[in-house]
């Protein structure tokens, strides 16, 4: 579980995060949603320690992340897995080496064990016989799956995903969403997903945090999002006619 | 103020490069790869340029020495001095700022814009140590490249001088041996050592702290070449003043 209390972050005069407090539960897919400029990315970067907030606390289980030194934070991050918007696979390595990279860095596995684990996680994300290929030879969806495989290879306790299905076709996007949810349940990890994608919200949003102008305006689940009368999130999610129809159909069930 | 900020940031990067070390086996492997990419891959162009610059030095010195009272061996002497004192350490370093420096800036810069550096950081890796330290190790071998450049430059002068009929081989060798001072070789390698450190770290700085997209990668490569060349010339001046005056 990750607990955030009264988090503030500014850039000069621009107050981006205005006292955010939230909890991200273990074994659940926790989604951060909101418009562009709402502070989602800044919030995620604060959680990862890539930005330093001026005030507040971030607790990973019982460890106060912001009280750690920079070096302690670097060491702590070995327990995190991250899936980037652009996959961020190392283009000087093939797929297999990309997945084995965290194992090589931080595990005591010998080369054979590392190879076996790499094959195992690639299979888990539905990829076979791609370990010798360069990342550039794979499609966007396959690159995302390799990124997920790399993120979970070293059994992280926390998984962060930044726009995991941006730029993907709807079918692949749904497949990536479902994969992340399955992995979250299977490995019992705390997953935090930063997304714009309304399908993700409705499909896998087990705990949704809606940010607007640096504040949490709504928090709930994908089931509750259909019934809420909160104006801010309703305007955001049901801005298109399609989603208005989806909501109507759901409520009429 | 911006310049001061950049200089400070550069030295902080240098400190971080020797900070928390990446796993030794990984650094060893990466260092070998960097030696291959920065040193071995540069051998061809450095040999080619040095050979022909040596040849041109010989031709030009010869054509400018029309006074019969000046011994012809001076052509060999001038070629040796030009190659050892300036061409090989300094001009080859400026060429390397273009070749290896641009490669370093663009490769690290591309990693920055594609979030690969963020990925390293989030994995708990000291990304500056992982990326920059092996380049510094590789550049410790830079003096070997310059030694080869010196040899090829003098060989170029020797071959051009003898084949072109500008100087006899005996006169050229006498010129090479005239007033030989071992300290000048030491001076050249001291310079080379400092130039190697600059070549490994300044382009890395421009790539690592790059902000923006792919267009900025190109701009950073150009800026890296310009500033690395300026710093090399300044260090050259300071070291020459300190060691030879």
Structure description:
The complex is a heterodimer of chains A (253) and B (245). In chain A, 41% of the residues are buried. Chain A has helices at residues 40-48, 70-76, 95-106, 111-124, 140-152, 170-187, 198-204, 224-227, 231-237, 241-251, and strands at 2-11, 14-24, 29-34, 55-60, 63-64, 80-83, 158-162, 190-194, 207-212, 215-220. Helices cover 40% and strands 24% of the residues of chain A. Chain A has a 6-stranded mixed β-sheet, with helices on both faces. Chain A has a 4-stranded antiparallel β-sheet with strand order 2-1-4-5, with helices on one face. Chain A is globular, with a radius of gyration of 19 Å. Chain B is an all-alpha fold and 245 residues long. Chain B has one domain (29-244). Chain B has 10 helices and no strands. Chain B starts with a helix and ends with a helix. The A-B interface holds A 48, 50, 71, 74-78, 80, 82, 84-86, 88-91, 101-102, 104-106, 160 and B 19-20, 22-23, 26, 110-111, 114-116, 118-119, 121-126.
Residue share in helices of chain A? 40-55%
| CATH architecture call of chain A | 3-Layer(aba) Sandwich
Distance separating the two termini of chain A: 34 Å
- Strand content bin of chain B: under 5%
Number of strands of chain A: 10
What fraction of the residues of chain A are assigned to beta strands by DSSP?
15-25%
* Secondary-structure element order of chain A, N to C: EEEHEEHEHHHEHEHEEHHH
Q: Which residues of chain A form runs of ≥5 with pLDDT under 50?
A: none
- The CATH class of chain A is identified as Alpha Beta
Count of helices of chain B? 10
**Main β-sheet of chain A, in a few words?**
6 strands, mixed
Please tell me what the overall shape of chain B is.
elongated
Q: Kindly report the greatest chain-chain contact and the residue count on each side.
A: A-B, 23 and 18 residues
Helix content of chain B: over 70%
Structural class label of chain B: mainly alpha
